[in-house]
């Protein structure tokens, strides 16, 4: 039964699992990087979408009382078209009986196409000062606009007042809008109209600096002569009257094709065009007005679109990339938003279900009339798989030797190189057998122990775990019910003095044990913890033993028992004390194996979804619950945090903070109730807000890493965490 240890000085051949691990090791770090990049990409998509909607860096300032002493008088009294030929500021007026019809704030998917229909019907061109973020979101409208013979100008990227912005922000607003135009229509433009601008006599010292800087870059700034004020929705007659110039004068006229309900604008436009044509007016673009002005240079090509320049080279490709990125954001963010609403409702529903079923489970199992049947007093076999556990094995075996229930203790040494087997034997404890085997992994060690066990009930535990004297006795009592095939115990964190230990303690009490109460009543317990679980030997052998197919052999065997028709229950009073990882690296390694192994086990047993009987019950009840709450919702959870942080920074800090605190309050309530059921001291809940900000984020990344590994087909081996042996016999249950 006992395998001989490998000869000293001879290098043993690697096991199959270790060879697979070696092949996967080269891909481990790239997968971590890919997981981080995925989260970063989604964050960037969200920020891009917010920037497009002018939520990031939105202009909240209101101009009031600025002087214009630095602005030349001939500019203040000049025409609506401001150019800088040769570096000298010059204004151009629209020729008499000529209308340069301009539109601001588009393109809009509802209103701009209808405006274009009216212009085409009346054979009238227009100049559209477009917002870059809107161009990137609706590139097809801009293409149609240009193809129809209309002209476009820059109205900044986020509709921000440039007068209060830094030079770099001004440059960014202009360049991004030009890129959007390049990606949408393959052009750039030299025309510019500032948001919140009106006539040239309103230019002040703040804005004049901006116009000068843009003039040096080759931009022509366009103002207005008459304002329809259609954005006020004053009525169709008032819009037409406000847009009409006096005494046959030419005019740059302002309408809007976005920014609100433009119904009155659409009604007013035909009436206005007909009225002005009846008065002998002609309609043109800003470039057309400049071409018709006295002394203005004549441009080659189409005079109505003289401001347009073909986008080439880097500008063209960067513009297309911008439009493509915006398209992705436009589809992704709404889908994610809808998904997060579903996830949020599901999570809150789960909290409610857990509380109801946990309370029912506690009252049922602690009621005076409850019992599993006749007391189970026969001896049981306790299997302790051990690999380099010299720090912990002594405490583990001494705690088992103090058991009030008769036990046979089997230490299966899985090729340890630190003298674990020798230490176990040197303790000379009664009823302890040490079995040696070449290193083959935890499932092989457990199977070796099961084959060597002398009793029909086997208890499995980890080599770093400590049992209380009555743990085994309490753990095996459910086997009085012949339908019970396995029992999950209550795993507790022993080293709670560390920060990670305290966080993991909260998770064990709330996330694991509260869940197990719910799953117990629903008869779909997904996992018996490796630290403390009991099995009918017959049931395990019937299921084929502990499988090496997955990294989560505990989840694998639990699901296999469900499918075989055995009942799996939770015994909350059977407690085991285990050592939590002491460093983020060790925690990552542990949870990575757990998460990935759970995915493997679920995939392995996917056919239970269509099975009948007990197997189908788990497949249609347990499987969806595990997938939804252990994989899907945690994967989406980082996005909830990103949305929350984004809302705090750029939308409504107070509302976002209150929402986050409300969710935290719900979690604290559930945790407090779980601590009460487990009779734990609630002082650890003070760590919960910090746990939500730090520990939970790490768990999210681990799960994303596991998903990437699963999708790329990587494999891992049984990973041994470094232990300190600080968890000994507990002095009390409340810790």
Structure notes:
- The protein has 735 residues and is α/β, with parallel strands linked by helices.
- The chain has 22 helices and 20 strands.
Summarize the structure.
With 735 residues, this protein is α/β, with parallel strands linked by helices. It contains 22 helices and 20 strands.
Set out the fold topology.
Layout: H1 16-52, H2 73-76, E1 81-83, E2 90-92, E3 98-104, H3 112-121, E4 127-130, H4 132-137, H5 139-147, E5 151-154, H6 167-185, E6 187-189, E7 191-192, H7 205-216, E8 220-222, E9 226-227, H8 236-243, E10 251-256, H9 263-278, E11 282-284, H10 286-292, E12 308-310, H11 313-365, E13 380-386, H12 393-401, E14 407-414, H13 420-426, E15 432-437, H14 442-452, E16 457-460, E17 466-467, H15 471-476, E18 484-493, H16 499-522, E19 533-536, H17 537-542, H18 553-563, E20 567-578, H19 584-604, H20 613-650, H21 653-677, H22 688-712
Parallel strand pairs: 3-4, 3-10, 3-11, 4-5, 7-8, 9-10, 13-14, 13-16, 14-15, 18-20
Antiparallel strand pairs: 1-2, 1-8, 6-12, 16-19, 17-20, 18-19
InterPro entries: Glyco_hydro/deAcase_b/a-brl, NODB_dom, Nucleotide-diphossugar_trans
Keywords: Glycosyltransferase, Membrane, Transferase, Transmembrane, Transmembrane helix
Domain NodB homology: 97-284
């Amino acid at each position: 039964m006992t395998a001989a240890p490998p000869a000293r000085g001879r290098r043993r051949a690697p096991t199959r699992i270790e060879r697979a691990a070696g092949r996967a090791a080269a891909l481990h770090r790239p997968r971590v990087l890919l997981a981080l990049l995925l989260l970063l990409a989604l964050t960037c998509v969200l920020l891009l979408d917010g920037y497009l909607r002018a939520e990031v860096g939105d202009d909240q300032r209101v101009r009031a009382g600025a002087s214009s002493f630095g602005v030349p008088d001939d500019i203040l009294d000049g025409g609506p078209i401001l150019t800088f030929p040769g570096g000298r500021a010059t204004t151009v007026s629209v020729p008499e009986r000529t209308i340069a019809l301009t539109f601001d704030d588009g393109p809009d998917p509802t209103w701009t196409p209808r405006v274009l229909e009216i212009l085409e019907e009346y054979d009238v061109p227009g100049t559209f000062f477009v917002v870059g973020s809107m161009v990137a979101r609706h590139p097809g409208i801009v293409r149609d606009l240009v193809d129809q013979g209309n002209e476009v100008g820059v109205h900044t990227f986020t509709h921000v007042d440039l007068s209060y912005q830094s030079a770099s922000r001004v440059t960014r607003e202009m360049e991004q809008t030009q890129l959007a135009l390049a990606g949408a229509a393959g052009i750039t433009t030299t025309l510019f109209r500032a948001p919140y601008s009106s006539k040239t006599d309103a230019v002040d010292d703040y804005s004049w600096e901006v116009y000068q800087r843009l003039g040096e870059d080759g931009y022509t700034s366009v103002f207005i002569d008459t304002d329809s004020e259609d954005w006020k929705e004053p009525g169709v007659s008032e819009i037409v009257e406000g847009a009409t110039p006096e005494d046959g004068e030419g005019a740059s006229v302002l309408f809007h094709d976005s920014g609100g309900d433009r119904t009155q604008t659409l009604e007013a436009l035909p009436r206005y065009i007909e009225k002005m044509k009846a008065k002998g007016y002609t309609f043109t673009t800003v470039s057309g007005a400049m071409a018709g002005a006295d002394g203005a240079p004549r441009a080659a090509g189409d005079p109505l679109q003289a401001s347009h320049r073909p986008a080439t080279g880097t500008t063209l490709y960067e513009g297309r990339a911008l439009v493509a990125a915006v398209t992705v954001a436009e589809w992704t963010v709404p889908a994610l938003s809808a998904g997060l609403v579903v996830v949020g409702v599901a999570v809150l529903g789960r909290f409610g279900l857990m509380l109801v079923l946990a309370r029912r489970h506690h009252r049922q199992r602690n009621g005076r009339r409850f019992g599993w049947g006749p007391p189970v007093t026969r001896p049981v076999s306790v299997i302790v798989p051990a690999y380099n556990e010299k720090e912990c094995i002594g405490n583990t075996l001494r705690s088992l030797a103090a058991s009030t229930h008769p036990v046979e203790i089997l230490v299966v040494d899985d090729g340890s190189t630190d003298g674990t087997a020798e230490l176990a034997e040197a303790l000379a404890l009664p009823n302890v057998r040490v079995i040696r085997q070449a290193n083959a992994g935890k499932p092989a060690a457990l199977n070796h122990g099961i084959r060597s066990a002398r009793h029909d009930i086997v208890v499995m535990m980890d080599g770093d775990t400590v049992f209380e004297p009555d743990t085994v006795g309490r753990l095996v009592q459910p086997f009085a019910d012949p339908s019970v095939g396995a029992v999950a115990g209550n795993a507790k964190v022993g080293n709670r003095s560390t920060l990670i230990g305290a966080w993991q303690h909260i998770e064990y009490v709330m996330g694991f044990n509260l869940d197990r109460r719910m799953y117990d009543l629903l008869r779909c317990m997904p996992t018996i913890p490796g630290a403390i679980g009991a099995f009918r030997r017959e049931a395990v052998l019937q299921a084929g033993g502990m499988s090496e197919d997955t990294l989560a052999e505990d989840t694998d065997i639990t699901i296999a028992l469900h499918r075989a028709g055995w009942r799996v229950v939770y015994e909350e009073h059977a407690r085991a004390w285990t050592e939590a990882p002491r460093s983020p690296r060790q925690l990552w390694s542990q949870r990575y194996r757990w998460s990935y192994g759970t995915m493997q086990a679920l995939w392995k047993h996917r056919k239970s979804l269509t099975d009948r009987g007990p197997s189908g019950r788990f497949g249609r009840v347990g499987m969806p619950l595990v997938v939804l709450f252990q994989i899907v919702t945690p994967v989406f959870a980082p996005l909830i945090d990103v949305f929350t942080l984004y809302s705090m920074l750029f939308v409504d800090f107070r509302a976002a903070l209150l929402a986050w605190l409300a969710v935290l309050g719900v979690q604290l309530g559930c945790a407090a109730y779980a601590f009460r059921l487990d009779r734990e001291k609630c002082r650890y809940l003070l760590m919960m807000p910090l746990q939500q900000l730090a520990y939970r984020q790490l768990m999210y990344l681990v799960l994303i890493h596991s998903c990437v590994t699963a999708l790329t087909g990587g494999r891992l081996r049984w990973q041994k965490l470094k232990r300190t042996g600080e968890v000994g016999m507990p002095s009390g249950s409340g810790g």
